[in-house]
Amino acid sequence: MELLDIFTLLGGVGLFLYGMTQMSSGLKAAAGDNLRIILQTATSNRFVSVMVGILVTLMIQSSSATDVMVIGFVNAGMMSLTQAIGVIMGANIGTTVTAQLTAFNLSSYAPLILFVGAIMYLFLKNGTVRSIGSVILGFGMLFEGIALMKSAIAPLAESEAFINMLSGLNNPFLAILFGIAFTALLQSSSSSIVIFQAFAATGILSYDVAVYLVLGAAVGSVTPNLLASLTANRNGKRSAILNLLFNVVRCVVIGVIITLFPQVLRLIQSLSPNDIARQIANTHTIFAIFAVVIELPLTNSIVRLAERIIPLKDEETRKAKDQRLVYLNSLDSLPAAVSLNQAKLEIYRMGEFALNNLCTAIDYFFDDDESKIQEVLDQEDTVDYLDHNITQALIDLRYHHLPPRDLNRLGRLLLDVSDIERISDHAVNITEYRQKLNQRKGTLSKEAMDDLHIIADATLASVEYSLQLFRDDRFNDLPQAEALEHIVNESQDLCISNHVDRMMEAECDPMGGVVYSDMVTDLERCSDHAIKVAYSLSGQDS
Questions:
Q1: pTM of the prediction?
Q2: Which residues fall within 8 angstroms of residue 109, CB to CB, at 6 or more apart?
């Protein structure tokens, strides 16, 4: 193999990889937000999750991209591990389509495909049309790259040194290891499979060796996901482990089967006689489908194994326990009045989380204990979860033909959910104020801190009392709630007055002054939201 052939091979690989990237980027751009919407439709139904994984991967032609999105959803708490593994399994099937496409010998048409794609991408202004042009352009690059690779590696068929190297891959274990390493290097199983097809088409790689390379490629394809999970939380890391476990089990089980029963490979070959590229593509697809069929019933076991590899911490267990509906699980079988009362209990439970979050955030602001930041964020996740699910449950209740009085009560409860969620949002803001002080080295005087202590204590008392009135329907005690809210307002006025005095005497640190003002405003708004909740079911206006 001459130096020029090596350059041609490298250029072919580079063109192919860039074509894959271009095609994937174009498909994602053309699909727009539909990818995220489709992924969010993945439910606890395993079959739906698998179909979602197949569909998304078909749309973007990259299982790695799908898996990275899954890691992001799991990391954000928008998808469970049970949902994630179904999507991951589907992605492993969807990615086999690339090999099926490249098995067609379209290299002769690659220049025409490139021309059409370039015209659409460079000269047409419509965004969607340009994205489709990008896909076509990438498609043409892909086949042109394959043609370059085939022409470059043809002389290798006569190279004794290269043939001797490939003879070592007759050992199935070594072939699997080579497939893992090669795919990890390319960061794409689709790319490595297509390159294996090119080697096989030129006669320097046998089908029996390519089969084990395909198995190794499936395991090596997990590398981008493992890298992406390094910056994710523990659940995000578990989703990457799920992908690794799925493909390792797939490699072991199928490797044992084809070693003990080589007739399976002869059957696959018979589907496309005299076309080794198609045989490899069919093998890739059949192995992926078979792996999903045998592992789909074992998803719960695979999830538990991932959780054992990265054990659940106490706070994760507590968060999983908190993020569920306790009182709104079977509304369809309950009378409307009972359902609304259950909703009120669930909203009060949400209010307790918001109050605890506010208390934790205030403690962090004054104590500067950074361990409390994550606690605030976790409780905010729980409040957001309850906000979404309680709201959805109440919206569903609207269709139960409620009488006008109950409809009015339901509408007020919806407003209560929003007010309580805002209290938790303010808690997050308070943690950000302390972080801003630390990052920009702002300071607050002792007098300013004393003022903030006063209004913070008054706010916590107001929020706690208002939630108790809401829970117990103690409408006769609303004047006391008003009095507590009035104390917060007076504290706010005092804080502002003192702040102005310090500014006039140039005793106020500029950054500290901004944080001080924002903190006072957020605390007063928490009390405002709380008093609205206290009044909501009384029929009076706060």
A1: 0.62
A2: 143
